[in-house]
Write a structure and sequence with these properties.
- The chain has 327 residues and is α/β, with parallel strands linked by helices.
- It is built from ten helices and eight strands.
- It folds into two domains: 238 residues, Spore Coat Polysaccharide Biosynthesis Protein SpsA, Chain A (Alpha-Beta Complex); 70 residues.
């Protein structure tokens, strides 16, 4: 249990991309919930290169409402980079990451905060009680991804989400990881610390549409797996070794058949073997290429994001302090 010396501050991080229809309503919803729960807060809104009027609405809110930081990135860097910006700029004793479409219900935030403040948990994870109205293809793909990640890395993200609360020391541990290609959900699980889970029901979108296409989700899955395990590389090696054994057996069989005078033309077998070998080689080269691409991106050492503009009106007193790693 944490000793309540002074009022704690919660940083609420919301990445935004083309959410002009919902953003003002969402700001009002979140701030009302936090005020009613008597939680001191700062709201950090990161515009990830929106093409609509999201930034102007975020900026207006930051100028009118105390406690809001509005950050505009120079282009669309992706949700992961927007989360990085929010975590870097958060000054609270803890933070909550939540989606701008409000499919993560902000009504759960006070429960998460209480588990952190009163029970002493360092991380409180929002876990999906159900996956909402997702397509069968999406549900099957997500299930396969989580199983592969769990088997290969030991990280269980089944029904997990980016909706989670992190204590200041968990934030600092996350920020200490220098990789440029981040996977927040996995990285915040990898750092450890005491944690609790809170179930929530995924809400339907009130306006707009999902910004995630099937291809972008596949890319995120590949990034997630290759960020935490070298299992695909080992799988390629084991596959090659298995094929080597099979080919040695086939070679022995062919020599025996040749010696006994029963050698056949075997044209179909040759074509099949070439297809299997060619496909395996291309798949293995592709796996290696993914890891080389990750090395290439890290070696370039480019920043995770670039801030174009920032607007804020900080809550007086509590929000002006800065935290050290030991807090």
């Amino acid at each position: 249990m944490r000793i309540k010396m002074t009022q704690k501050t919660l940083s609420v991080i919301i990445p935004v991309f083309n959410e002009s229809e919902m953003i003002q309503k969402n700001i009002e919803r979140v701030t009302t919930i936090l005020k009613n729960s008597k939680i001191n807060y700062e709201l950090i809104l990161i515009d990830d290169g929106s093409k609509d009027s999201s930034w102007s609405k975020i900026k207006d809110s930051a100028q009118m409402i105390p406690g809001i930081k509005a950050i505009k990135l120079s282009r669309n860097f992706g949700k992961e980079s927007a989360l990085c910006a929010g975590l870097d700029l958060a000054t609270g004793d803890c933070c909550v990451c939540i989606d701008a479409d409000m499919q993560h219900p902000p009504e759960i935030i006070p429960q998460m905060y209480q588990l952190w403040e009163n029970e002493g948990y360092d991380i409180v994870e929002g876990v999906k009680k159900n996956r909402g109205k997702e397509s069968l293809r999406y549900k099957v793909s997500a299930g396969i991804f989580y199983k592969i990640l769990h088997k290969t890395s030991g990280i269980d993200l089944n029904n997990a989400s980016d909706f989670r609360l992190l204590d200041r020391k968990a934030i600092n541990a996350w920020k200490a990881m220098p990789e440029k290609q981040t996977f927040f959900r996995g990285m915040s699980s990898w750092i450890g610390f005491s944690r609790a889970q809170v179930e929530f029901i995924v809400a339907e979108r009130e306006a707009g549409e999902s910004k995630w296409s099937f291809i972008s989700l596949v890319k995120l899955a590949i990034k997630g797996v290759t960020s935490y395990t070298a299992a695909p590389l080992y799988a390629s090696a084991f596959l090659g070794f298995g094929l080597l054994i099979a080919f040695v057996f086939l070679l022995g069989q062919t020599l025996v058949m040749k010696i006994l005078g029963y050698a056949a033309s075997g044209f179909t077998t040759v074509i099949a073997l070439q297809l299997v070998i060619g496909g395996t080689l291309m798949m293995s080269v592709g796996v290696i290429g993914i890891y080389i691409e990750k090395i290439y991106e890290e070696v370039k050492a480019r920043p995770r994001y670039i801030i174009e503009n920032m607007e804020d009106r900080l809550i007086p007193n509590n929000n002006e302090k800065r935290h050290s790693d030991g807090e």
